[in-house]
User: Fold these one by one.
Assistant:
Number 1:
Amino acid sequence: MPSPTLGGMELRQLEYFVAVADEASFTKAAAKLFVAQPGVSAQVRRLERELGQPLFDRSGPTVRLTDVGEAVLGYARAVLDGAAMVRLAVDEFAGLVRGRVAVGMVRACSSVELPPVLADFHQDYPGVEITLSEDDSDRLLGAVISGRLDVAVVALTEEEPDGVALDVIVDEELVIAVSSGDRLAGAGAVGIEALRGRGLVSLPKGTGMRACLERACAAAGFEPRVALEVSNPAMLADLAARGLGPAILPASLAAERAENLTAVRVSGPGLRGRMALAWRAGGPSSPAARRFLDYARAAFAAVEQRV
């Protein structure tokens, strides 16, 4: 079946052109598109003949866009995006859902069960391609605002970001978790000042619990001294239980390990760990992403929040 055309150009030719531009290689573009390399070269040559100008400089070790190619690339992307949106709109009208959903997840997150939501959505909508990436909350929120991500699970600080809409999924007390032999183990509650000068175990910068720790310590007039940094909350709990230093943990995780960990509450304002589902304030652009957002919001709403 021939590819749809625009003037004398085929959408397939534009697709191949964009792939070669992205990969800077005909061979890599062919592998990305799952087609033979000669076919990619032939389609791009036909597009160049149609336009009457070379789009690539093939004289060097890598393929480079010509000035004309640079000028054409943005328009080619727009045409392909428009064609995809036309198909998605037709599918949505027909009751079908296809397309792609880009989802983000904050690193070292143990309190939100995102994988079951993704699996259930995939089972109900197998025509939707789902991508999942992990990063810190600031980068995830930036990707949501720019449109690189449709939806993300992020950790919240006191200041809620502009340009995004939020559903809080988890709002949980954070505690100081220590081993039974730690000098804080006998205290029911202490001020955050009790951590001044202590060697702490902590999640990396960019995670919600690390941000809560740093913010509370800054309010008390000191910087936390992080001696060990790990990316897994379960490992963080194990290190604290073995006496390698106090750790800030969700109260629920500390309670699960009560035989090895002692949870000490933080007096005063206390610490809260909040996780939220975030999406662009205007809503996701594609039908598939809008369907996933509705699906995820309903799924998380059905789970009782830990308070």
Number 2:
Amino acid sequence: MTIQAFYPIGTPGRPWGDAEVAAWRARQAVRRSYAADVLSAIETLRARFDVSEYGRLDYASDSYPLFAIRSRGWRDELPVALVTGGVHGYETSGVHGALQFVDRHAADYAGRINLLVAPCVSPWGYERIHRWNPDALDPNRSFRADSPAQESAALMRLVAPLRDRVRVHIDLHETTDSDESEFRPALAARDGKPFEPGTIPDGFYLCADSADPQPAFQQAVIAAVARVTHIAPADPDGTIIGSPVVAPGVIEYACRQLGLCAGITDAPYRTTTEVYPDSPRATPEQCNAAQAAAIRAAIDFALAHGALEGGTESA
């Protein structure tokens, strides 16, 4: 893979200011439609699920409604399963895997656990196939108090009333070749740092929360996905994207410290999926199916471990 020596915006060694962010934003073009791809799919689910608008993103001439899908017949005595997709808008299977799960599998959990699904947290990024929002901010580094990212702040407001009742949270992501060819070089340029090339893992993997990694839970998800697509091997140094592999297909991140979506609740079971859509061994359909399989395995494990009372763990 050929990597540019310098990103075409900014001055090497100097962080971006407003002019550089504006220049970067001017380069971003709409490449697909949130309304056609996502809102139309959500509309077809209204007959079976409760759909509500939990926020709206207003960026100059662009305005995007944000929708959440809930179980019909929500029962307050049941715990909650939270599914989030499209926190990075360019990670396509996170969005469509979440919608596929709702359409094909969510009904299986009726009366057992309440489902709350936010399938496309970052629609501006979805349309432009980009990781950032228009302010050149990464929503998945912005889940913290007084978040500067509208996308992150809106999701946190949605989840806040249920935060202590969430038993399982699965956040759906992808690792793509463009991470190395575009997004990490852009990040280095934005922050005025040198770009250090890395590697892209070939296959599915998980990022557990290092504060509470729940290894048996992570392995249950890996085992389910392995029936759909291949699991990423470690690099020769025993890492995936530079982080030590703690079990087959599993690394750990400090979710809250990094402002990651997977850290927004106290769910005993939480993880971040990473699908590799650029692999010659995986089709788009497999990628969506892998995300849906991961969601099902995560919820099934959570249901099988602990009392079903408000999301609290049994003794």
